[in-house]
Design brief:
Helix 2 runs antiparallel to helix 3. The chain has five helices and no strands. It has two domains: about 80 residues, Helix Hairpins; about 55 residues. The protein is about 65% helix and about 0% strand. The protein is mostly helical.
């Protein structure tokens, strides 16, 4: 399917007069015939616009997935709705990376929790023992 708007160099929001001027100035006879067939009847234009939106969305999705046509398709009708590959990270991949990072931090904390907990309990017990021993030695506690 051709992108008639792109081929005629008008926007999809163009009015009837702009489109008719673009069709009249078109040098390519087959393109002009296709454009006249689509844009002269209101129902056909509505149908074309719906299909144009759908195919444009598919082109955006293909770009988001990194899919594009090969060099031999460039400039061809098959490439009208293709966009350059979009290498931005997807929302799903971003969330997976964040959850993976959180899980690795949690696992690291769990690995270190055992030895540090034992050291903390031992230190607290030793501190209490030393404090009681000093208190007994100094006579602060009755025997």
């Amino acid at each position: 399917m051709r992108d008639l708007y792109q081929r005629l160099a008008v926007s999809p929001e163009a009015n009837e007069q702009e489109i008719s001027q673009a069709v009249a100035s078109c040098q390519h006879s087959a393109l002009r015939q296709d454009a006249e067939a689509v844009f002269t009847v209101a129902e056909r234009r509505e149908t074309y616009d719906t299909l144009h939106d759908t195919v444009s969305d598919i082109g955006k999705l293909r770009a988001r997935l990194g899919l594009s046509h090969g060099a031999h398709w460039q400039g061809d009708v098959a490439n009208d709705f293709s966009l350059p590959p979009d290498h931005a990270i997807s929302r799903h991949d971003e969330l997976v990376d964040r959850v993976s990072h959180a899980v690795s931090l949690y696992n690291r904390w769990r690995r270190l929790r055992g030895p540090w907990l034992l050291i903390a309990v031992f230190a607290a017990g030793a501190g209490i023992g030393i404090a009681l021993g000093l208190a007994l030695c100094l006579g602060l506690l009755p025997m």
